[in-house]
Amino acid sequence: MNTLSNQTSKWLAAFAAMLVTIVISGCATSNNMPAPVTAPLAAHDYLIGPGDSVNIVVWRNPEVSSLITVRPDGKITTPLVEDVVAIGKTSTELARDIEKALEKFIQQPVVTVIVTGFIGPYQEQIRVIGQAARPQALPYREGMSLMDVLISVGGITEFASGNKANIIRTVDGKQQKLSVRLNDLIKDGDISANVQVRPGDILVIPQSFF
């Protein structure tokens, strides 16, 4: 009986030691996991730009409510309010500015601004130049990817050197050149070639030289 008890004790001790080893190994592994390839994107609030349509609703005052297009100089003029800067502001920020201006004429005005046309500030537009089917500037949208950009411009031309394309991106006032693989994405369906774009990116698609 004592022999059996000793064997059981030894087996339990060995099992406990094995568990400790597994736990320690697991902790060591979790502390040394590789960093994520891409950091999550910060939330991006839409900023009003020239050419955007904004619907200004003043509660209980329909006579001063209006649908207006932001002028090229980035300002708007509404009934009772002249030359309010709209460019570079969110709809909420613009609503508060209009409320402040209307306080001279209306007691405790409540304003809601609804953006109904989206162009955005020039500095946030995605520009596509070179051998795109329809080179153009596109308004940036939350979560926009390289594939979304290519769909919007109709893809690339037969003369494009897609795998030699670059994204020019400004970070902290400095320009960076990022290589992208358009041929792999469009022709081969390689989703790993699809990358997220950022406000203000410039996609340059060079011509292929035979």
Automatic annotation (TrEMBL):
Gene Ontology annotations of biological process type: monoatomic ion transport
GO molecular function annotations of the record: polysaccharide transmembrane transporter activity; porin activity
Record's keyword annotation contains RNA-binding: no
Membrane topology, as annotated: Multi-pass membrane protein
Keyword Membrane annotated: yes
NCBIfam families: pepcterm_export
Protein name: Sugar ABC transporter substrate-binding protein
